[in-house]
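Standup notes, protein team

Yesterday: finished cleaning the Actinomycetospora chlora set.
Today: Aldo/keto reductase structure.
Blockers: none.

Input for Aldo/keto reductase:
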Amino acid sequence: MTTPEIRRLGRTGPLVTSPGLGAMGLSGAYGVVDDDEGVRVIHAYLDGGGTLIDTGDFYGSGHNEALIGRALRGRDRDDVVLSVKFGALRGPDGALQGVDARPAALRNFLTYSLQRLGVDHVDVYRPARLDRAVPIEDTVGAIAELVEQGYVRHVGLSEVGAATIRRAAAVAPISDLQIEYSLLQRDIEDEILPTCRELGVGVTAYGVLSRGLIGGSGGLDGGRRVMPRFADGNREHNAALVAQLADVAVRRGVTVAQLALAWVSAAGDDVVPVLGARRVEQVTSMLAPVRLTPDEAAELAALVPRGAVAGDRYPAVAMADLDSERTDGTPVTTGAPRMQ
């Protein structure tokens, strides 16, 4: 069995395997998954040598953490790196209702996460989005206190822009920024990725397969129904764009999904792709080693030109609230009311 590659999250973060396992899809994000199969998926990843599992306390309204906790029973805690996002609020109907990253709130969120996961600490703790009503310094400072107390090992960020990264890094060491990055989504290359590299912040890249646009079935199950890139017209355009990768995949003897994963991995040793899996065979595929030469990576980038994808990566209301999508160099306004 081939051992997955080991990379460090930034200058100060933990050593992890690349790729990491994104667990969101095991809690209904893209269709129903049986819990027993979800446990088998997590076990297949860990048994295959994987260590990094990414979750959020709002995935399945706590279901995802409970499922991971079940899968980890009897396992050596030191063999797993748990990355947890917090702050996204849900109503009883499951609808998202904004973000809360106040110090008191995040301490409360962590308490419940530790209980559901069945652990005494998480390895990386990060706000899922910037809370416009709370200075990032307050949020990061509170996580840093949890690091001092032993409940958290490292501070992470998610979907924030360069200005916010700088403010956060001035308060405490940041292990990594979690953000979307793929052949179809390369905007971070302009400012965000260079800022991370300047500050020694790693990148955990999600959306590596663009929610199934690359190498997927093209189905509209789960959250894909509201994603602009799956809208009529956009979906057909994007499928034709990705189809150009097929010949390269055949030439290399790999799948299109493996090719796209390898492209993100080739972006640098400071980039760790995080890939979702809902079936054991998908785990086997993602852990299969595929390496690209610089020329091969450049060929793929040319086949799928930057900016050629049709549609935004999130619906308009979500895009408007993404600090990482601001183009004027300033963070989302601090002190604004929370999104409801």
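Follow-up from PR in the comments: Residues 331-340 have pLDDT under 50 and may be disordered.
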